Fold this protein.
Amino acid sequence: MKTIQSFSTQIEIGDITKSTFSSVIESYSKANIIIIVDENTHDYCLEFLLTNFSALANAEIILLPEGEENKVMEVCFQVWETFTEFNFSRKDLVINLGGGIVTDMGGFIASIFKRGMNFIHVPTSLLGMVDASIGGKNGVDLNGFKNQLGVFNDPSHIFIDAAFLTTLPERELYNGYAEMLKHGLIADEKLWNDLIKIESDEALIDEKLIYRTIKVKLDIVEADPKEQNVRMKLNFGHTIGHALESHFLSFTAIAHGHAVALGICAEAFLSLKKKKITPEEFNVIETVIIRNFPMIQLTDEDITDVIARMKNDKKNNGKAINFVLLEKIGSAVININLKEKEIGEALFHLNLLGSALN
Ligand SMILES: NC(=O)c1ccc[n+]([C@@H]2O[C@H](COP(=O)([O-])OP(=O)(O)OC[C@H]3O[C@@H](n4cnc5c(N)ncnc54)[C@H](O)[C@@H]3O)[C@@H](O)[C@H]2O)c1
């Protein structure tokens, strides 16, 4: 069991039955415990917790509809109404058992209700373990724009047990892999080199790699918890990634991790065009992304809408579209303003890859 204390959050990585989870929930024996799940974590993860922890016998279960299209205020309102009906109070405990959508939304729901309930995260997707549950960002989407409403607020505990990953669909493992690759690219060349050697799904379920990836994120978050400067590096791949994710949400939704992988490819292309990385470095990055993620085709209308969506990105400075670019593998620079024409070229390049490979 590895334990990390980061600000007010205790993070435990290892077998949850051997962690302090049991004593944490027992300390709420006089309070209500609410477990928030989505349809899949209800079916695949909940029983494990209920069977192993008798203190959860009377827990109330809140079921969220699965999928990014449901990461919205309307669903939160329904949950807050239920919390009100059940008379839940600030002293009660919310356990968010799920992927990044459940931890983002559950953290937000708990943070807002009665000005803040206690909450803990038990991430069950790889992306949730290495990224979404870490760093205190909670929130929901608004009108198709990602994470427009939210708060910074830390859970008291995060319990990361890779055993939950055995039921995670293969494509979801790769969505987590995208964020792991990003962590290596922006801050840890050795991690990147180890990650790109992975050749099987099983090798992705590796507590040591999960721990190293979390450490990269924590080091950055601890230096800049409210994203005033260096934390922006974590958004590498996300300016284009989020815009692609939002654009496709209403028709053929693409998962967050997949969108980030495409964003990494396009933003590495921009890093090359700005002469920040070498052609050799770009080729390695592009090859890794192509090998592990499906490429997509983009029409001119798609490209126009994706660029329009980037103008609403939270990281922008006034009207300019603000990027994080790589200056080498293992190091990133923030606040690079790019012109729409340059961004269009990167999206055009993505489309060429999609057309060539499909
Ligand atoms: N807060 C942050 O800092 C942060 C960082 C990165 C991403 N995010 C957010 O995270 C979300 C993406 O997270 P995600 O990829 O985990 O998506 P997700 O929560 O939708 O989970 C992916 C899929 O896997 C299922 N699932 C989860 N655990 C499972 C298990 N153990 N067995 C079987 N099925 C399981 C889910 O039901 C879902 O269908 C996005 O909304 C993104 O914006 C937040």
About this structure: The first strand starts at residue 2 and ends at 6. The first helix runs from residue 21 to 26. The mean pLDDT is 96.
